[in-house]
Model the fold of this input.
Amino acid sequence: MKRADLMRLKTLNWYFIIIILLLIVIDHGYKFIESENYIIEKVNINADNSLTRHLLEEVSDNLKGKNIWYINKNMIKNYLKKDVRIENIKIVKVLPNTIDIFIEEKSPVAYILYEKRIYGVNENGNIFAYRSEIQLKDKILLSVKNEIEINILLSILSKIDNHKFKNRISEIYIEEEDIILNLRDGVKIITNLEVEGEKYNAAYLLYQKILKENEKMNSIDLTVESDKFIVR
Done:
């Protein structure tokens, strides 16, 4: 046998050995991945409140019994993000058989009285929870007759950047052509969509000044022209 033929034979033998070794590695890898040790037995849910409890229980039940190596975390995230109540999601695989899901739920900016029921509402005007499901201490009540009014009243809130002033508001509602902000001490702030944010700041300073001087006031009307106010 020629030298060249011997070299080709040795090369083929090496190829054969490498293929055999690869097959052994693949077989062991497959058996390793398919081991019962990696069947999900536990799903830990970490959420800041119970708004999405039922949804997360459904996801948990679907994950249990599946192989942890085949779980696509992005698919789970995309599924959960369809829920308007969810802000952020983190999913961690804890080998061999545990999944940790961390959920940050959105916090309602106000609650609304709509069709004789009270709901939580987020900054985009999405209704996403019943009053009994959420903690709404000191939140503002938006009394609305339809869903369009929700966004109108939220647009008013977005113009008030003074948190002390905002914390004084107990209720907002539309009355004919005006928008009424009821403060917690009973004073009414009369406004509309044309009033800009700077005027709310000026109105709060006026309100504080009147309180300090112990003068009576029932309402402050912001709807008059420019920087003027009507105090009644």
